[in-house]
Design a protein that fits this description.
Largest sheet: 7 strands, mixed
Strand order of the largest sheet: 3-9-10-16-13-12-11
Structural class: alpha+beta
CATH architecture of the largest domain: 2-Layer Sandwich
Radius of gyration: 26 Å
Strand content: 25-35%
CATH class of the largest domain: Alpha Beta
Shape: globular
CATH superfamily of the largest domain: Bira Bifunctional Protein, Domain 2
Bound molecules: glycyl-adenosine-5'-phosphate
Number of domains: 3
CATH topology of the largest domain: BirA Bifunctional Protein, domain 2
Number of strands: 23
Length: 486
């Protein structure tokens, strides 16, 4: 999709210029790692979210969706292990006082080695890091950083503190009177809202195992190294699905969702060669298997989605802390002809960051194209080749002139189409300029109403990706756009 001159810095400024993404509270110089979505960004984000929601809930008859609150009872996070375990090993540079996540610091150094062609050193460094992290050997990690002479980007020194763990949850107070207030947390994942509602949904929806509960919503993490635009943010959105299965069948379902989710991304137009699996070496406290689906972002291969086999850890923990029985009665018959009976279901989770998927789509879509015209002169454009299904605006309706009854015909078409999909009407500027603006916004179809329209009820439709133009009946426009949206 994107061509060679694709450049990440250009993409970031394009996102701002065309109403996709703004720095949060920019007039006050912004807030680090927090972003706002503009008029086009919010619509694209909604379209991606709706597409995920539809494929999870509408297209799977054993998955339902919920919308749990961000604030949860504080014991939730004790039970889930987040209060004790949701932390990253960090190291501080004593000269600059800058704090780094140790894996990010070492990975950046490994990337630099790779760029210098030192592939073997890069491999050994990453392998050693993985082994030390898996063994929680923080003294070993510090030694690895020192032995490799890894420097702070600011002070350029190797004067490091010990490696320490920092919790990533944001906390706040609930209750109006200070003495009576309680500490609560902004959820760091949406998944716990699903676990605590397991029985509510299972019973009210009369769900039979295996079944899933899906949810989209905000999550918050006090990321120390927040960088790479919307890749790692402090406030972001997740799209998660917990799939509840019979104990002992979790690996079967883990493999099912591993394949299913990669296929889903490919169905969204992400080329298969830009996606790969990465198995976790160090498993989270709740998992018996985990992998990332990685995408090749403009800054390298990084996690897009996590697939985790979370065992029965979460439901059992909530049962213990809440003192409420959280079990499922399975009256299907086993091999001995007896019901499976009561058990705590195992869980396979799929968890994708909506903002990361947005970044995936927009970085694939962005292209800075130049070509030679028939008369030998050069031409160029910046285009967002966002798949029509999720593009913010589907159709631009452009009367060639602001007179001769052309705007009236255009507005009639707009009224006919706007109930079915997002349209944009514009009558200012030369038509070529209007096409370029629509390319930059990522509008897949433009229709021009001209004088011939008055004579034979035809219009020119222009396709964004190929720039091909053809004449079709005015009455066919809506049907064609709906067909192309898929
Ligand atoms: N419930 C499991 C869970 O939260 P995770 O791997 O920590 O697992 C899942 O997060 C997904 O959420 C990631 O694959 C990523 O797409 C997204 N994500 C995590 N942290 C993020 C951040 N700081 N900014 C943007 N997206 C993030």
């Amino acid at each position: 999709m994107a061509n060679e001159s694709n450049n990440f810095a250009e993409l970031i400024s394009h996102c701002k210029e065309y109403g996709y993404i703004f720095q949060s509270s920019e007039i006050y110089d912004g807030l680090a790692a927090v972003y706002d979505y503009g008029q086009n960004g919010a619509q694209l984000k909604k379209n991606i979210r709706d597409h995920w929601w539809k494929s999870m809930t509408q297209l799977h008859d054993n998955i339902v969706g919920i919308d749990a609150a961000i604030f949860m009872h504080p014991t939730t996070w004790k039970a889930s292990g987040h209060i004790d375990n949701f932390s990253d090993p960090m190291i501080d540079n004593k000269d600059s006082n800058k704090r780094y996540r140790v894996d990010h610091l070492i990975e950046a150094h490994a990337e630099a080695l790779a760029l210098e062609g030192k592939k073997e050193e890069e491999f050994t460094l990453l392998k050693t890091m993985d082994e030390l992290l898996a063994a929680t050997d923080y003294a070993g990690i510090k030694k690895l950083i020192e032995d490799n002479r890894i420097k702070c980007a600011i002070s350029k020194t190797c004067n490091w503190t010990e490696v320490r763990e920092f919790n990533l949850m944001f906390s706040t107070q609930i209750g109006s009177v200070a003495e009576e207030s309680d500490t609560i947390y902004l959820r760091p994942e949406t998944a716990q809202g699903i676990f605590v509602n397991f029985l509510n949904v299972q019973k009210t929806g009369r769900m039979k195992i295996p079944f899933g509960i899906a949810q989209t919503g905000k999550a918050f993490r006090n990321e120390i190294v927040a960088r790479q635009f919307i890749f790692r943010m402090r406030e972001f959105e997740q799209m998660e699905m917990q799939f509840f299965v019979r104990p002992g069948t979790q690996m079967e379902w883990y493999n099912f969702w591993k394949a299913e989710r990669k296929k889903w991304h490919e169905g969204l137009g992400i080329p298969a060669e830009k996606l790969r699996y990465h198995d976790h070496v160090k498993l989270a406290h709740y998992a018996d298997a985990a992998l990332d689906i990685e995408f090749e972002f403009p800054f390298g291969w990084k996690e897009l989605e996590g697939i985790h086999s979370r065992t029965d850890f979460d439901l059992k923990q909530h049962q213990e802390y809440s003192k409420k029985k959280i079990q499922y009665f399975d009256n299907d018959l086993n091999e001995a002809g007896k019901p499976f009976g009561n058990y705590t279901p195992f869980v396979v989770e799929t968890s994708v960051g909506l903002d990361r998927l947005f970044l995936t789509i927009i970085s694939l879509a962005y292209a800075n194209e130049t070509w030679t015209k028939e008369d030998g002169t050069e031409d160029s454009r910046v285009v967002l080749k966002i798949p029509a299904r999720i593009a913010p605006t589907k159709l631009a309706i452009l009367p060639l002139l602001k007179k001769d009854g052309l705007p009236e015909i255009a507005k009639e078409l707009m009224n006919d189409c706007k109930n079915s999909f997002m349209c944009f009407y514009e009558e200012k500027d030369a038509i070529g300029k209007r096409y370029r603006r629509m390319d930059a916004i990522g509008t897949p179809f433009c229709v021009t109403i001209d004088h011939q329209t008055k004579e034979d009820n035809t219009v020119t439709i222009r396709y964004r990706d190929t720039m091909v133009q053809e004449r079709i009946a005015l009455s066919e426009v809506k049907k064609l756009v709906l067909e192309k949206m898929g």
